[in-house]
Amino acid sequence: MKKLLLHVCCAPDATTAYLRLKEKFDVDFYFYNPNVHPREEYEKRLDATRKLAKVWNVKLIEGLYEPEKYFQAVKGHEHLGEMSYRCFLCIRQRLFKVAEVAQELGYEYFSTSLPTSPKKDFEMVVKAGKEAQERFGVKFYIEDFKKSGGYPLSVKLSKELNLYRQNYCGCIFSFREAIEQREKSKKERMEKIQRILKENDISIELDVDPEEFLITHNLLNNIGFDILQKLIPLIRPRTLVVERSIYEKYWPERKNARFGKFKVKIKVLEQISL
Fold it and tell me: Structurally, what CATH architecture does the domain formed by 3-166 represent?
């Protein structure tokens, strides 16, 4: 079986990529992501990759953390947003390094787990990989791993293996953009919540993105279940804490409650003292 060096951008994306590639190649992991900021985030992603490699018994080669190489690659394009030419330059810089290492170590092929993510432009990855192939003479194998259920599978496997999942692409620019987007989302959701409360003449203090949201009979009597169904997707709590009688009425024997597309886990209390 021919040997392939798989660039791992993160452990979750590597799950689907590896399962598909191992049917055709003898696959080793290569973790090289100098774009990731800050260093603590880089270590989390590397540790998750180490964990996956150990569980699945895959050889892992760890590249250097050299953020200066990333900044050199995107110099002059820092102002561009996500999915822009800045991202292409970042991907190309990493894939050039992967191809270079693959050449040095005698691999016949190289690939990347990047296409597992729906947030990556597949054609951008293809272009960068082909340029790296031409430069270093190692064959670039590419597949759109997110297709045919690839991305949902990566999410499922990540949860089963308890792998760290990041909430932004990686670089300092995407980090800032993610913060800006989250703040914008929080503001917009808060405005919608206030509008719903005002339209229904409800006087209650609510916040967004809490760890827990408590649902009591008192609350339901004040706002009603129909209004609650509109509010929960805007509040977006991590956990719903509910009295058992409410749980048995609305979500019997379920671990999660669904409000439209929003799903949240349930914590049941026998009795709530107020």
Answer: 3-Layer(aba) Sandwich (3.40)
- For the chain, the structural domain boundaries read 3-166, 176-269
* 3-class DSSP state of 29: strand
Which secondary structure element, helix H or strand E, spans residue 129, and what is its range?
helix 122-136
Regions in the chain scoring below 50 on pLDDT = 273-274
Structure tokens at 63: 């590249």
Phi-psi region of 162 (alpha: psi -120 to 50; beta: other; left: phi over 0): left
d(CA 104, CA 108): 11
pLDDT of amino acid 180: 81
Tokens of 44: 């989390």
As beta bridge partners, residue 263 has 258
Sheet architecture: strand order including 239-243: 212-215, 239-243, 262-269, 256-259
Q: CA-based angle 249:254:258, to the nearest 5? A: 85
Query: Is residue 7 within a helix (H) or strand (E), and if so which, with residue range?
Result: strand 3-8
The residue type found at 176 is: R
Total residue count of the chain as it appears in this document: 274
The model carries a pTM of 0.72
Contact between 91 and 62 under an 8 Å Cβ cutoff? The reply is: no
Find where tokens 């590597």 sit.
Answer: 14
The 26-31 sheet, strands edge to edge: 60-62, 26-31, 3-8, 109-112, 139-140
Q: Which two tokens stand for residue 234?
A: 């805007």
Q: Which of 144, 130, 163 is nearest to 54 (CA)?
A: 163
User: What is the reported pLDDT for 128?
Assistant: 98
User: What are the structure tokens assigned to 205, written together?
Assistant: 């203090």
Q: Are 168 and 133 in contact (CB under 8 A)?
A: no
Report the DSSP beta bridge partners of residue 30. Answer: 7, 61
